[in-house]
C-alpha cells in the first residue's frame, strides 16, 4: 500500500486455506515512517490431532492406552499396531497409513481375544450311534466334522455341561474313513482338532 509519512496504517492478516497466521515481523498497526517499510507475515500449516483407540471388539473395552499425536495438514502418518498380550488385531475404522486431513482424525483399532480350547471325542459305533459326541473346553464355540478332508457344516455348541454332539449316522459308514472333529472360537479361529475313531 502507498502511504505518506505520518499516515496511520492497520493491516489484517489474510486467511489462507490450511494455514494459520502466527506472527509478524513488525506491528500490524502503526504510523508510516520516512522510509519504505516491509512487514513479513508468518504462517504455519494447521495442525490437527490424530487419536487412535485400541478396543476389544467383543467387550468394547479399551485394552491399550490411546495413541495421540499432532500433525500438520498433508503430513504422512503411520499408526503403530501394538502387539497386545492374548489379543490379535482384527480390523480398523481407518487406514493405518495415510495423509493427515484438514481436521482431527479418530481411528479405532479392534482386537479379538486369542482364544484357546480343547476337544475330547468319544468312540463312534458305525450303524449304531447317531451322533459323534464328546466334550469341549475353553473358548470353543463351534465344531465341524471333517471326513476324508471334506468339511461339513459348523455346529454351534453351548451349555454349562460342555458336551457336544454332531449328527453323523449317514456320514460315517466305514472304518476306512479318515474322520476328524475341528473346534473353533466364535471368530472362526481353529482352536483344536481331534481324530474320531470308529468301530
UniProtKB/TrEMBL annotation:
Residues in MucBP domain copies: 4-44, 50-111
Protein's UniProt keywords contain Transcription: no
InterPro entries assigned to the protein according to its UniProt record, in alphabetical order: Big_15, MucBP_dom
Domain Bacterial Ig: 117-195
Native organism: Listeria aquatica FSL S10-1188
Name of this chain's protein: Mucus-binding protein, LPXTG-motif cell wall anchor
Top-level taxon in the UniProt lineage: Bacteria
Keywords for the protein's UniProt record, in alphabetical order: Repeat
Amino acid at each position: 500500500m502507498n502511504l505518506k509519512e505520518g499516515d496511520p496504517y492497520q493491516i489484517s492478516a489474510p486467511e489462507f486455506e490450511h494455514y494459520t497466521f502466527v506472527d509478524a515481523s513488525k506491528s500490524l498497526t502503526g504510523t508510516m515512517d520516512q522510509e519504505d517499510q516491509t512487514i513479513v507475515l508468518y504462517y504455519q500449516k494447521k495442525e490437527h490431532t490424530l487419536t487412535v483407540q485400541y478396543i476389544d471388539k467383543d467387550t468394547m473395552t479399551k485394552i491399550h492406552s490411546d495413541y495421540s499425536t499432532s500433525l500438520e495438514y498433508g503430513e504422512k502418518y503411520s499408526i503403530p499396531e501394538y502387539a497386545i498380550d492374548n489379543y490379535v488385531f482384527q480390523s480398523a475404522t481407518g487406514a493405518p497409513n495415510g495423509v493427515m486431513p484438514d481436521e482431527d482424525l479418530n481411528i479405532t483399532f479392534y482386537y479379538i481375544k486369542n482364544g484357546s480350547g480343547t476337544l475330547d471325542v468319544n468312540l463312534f459305533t458305525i450303524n449304531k450311534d447317531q451322533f459323534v459326541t464328546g466334550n469341549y473346553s475353553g473358548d470353543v464355540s463351534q465344531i465341524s466334522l471333517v471326513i476324508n478332508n471334506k468339511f461339513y457344516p459348523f455346529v454351534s455348541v453351548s451349555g454349562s455341561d460342555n458336551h457336544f454332539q454332531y449328527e453323523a449316522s449317514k456320514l460315517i459308514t466305514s472304518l476306512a474313513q479318515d474322520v476328524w472333529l475341528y473346534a473353533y472360537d466364535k471368530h472362526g479361529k481353529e482352536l483344536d482338532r481331534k481324530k474320531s475313531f470308529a468301530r
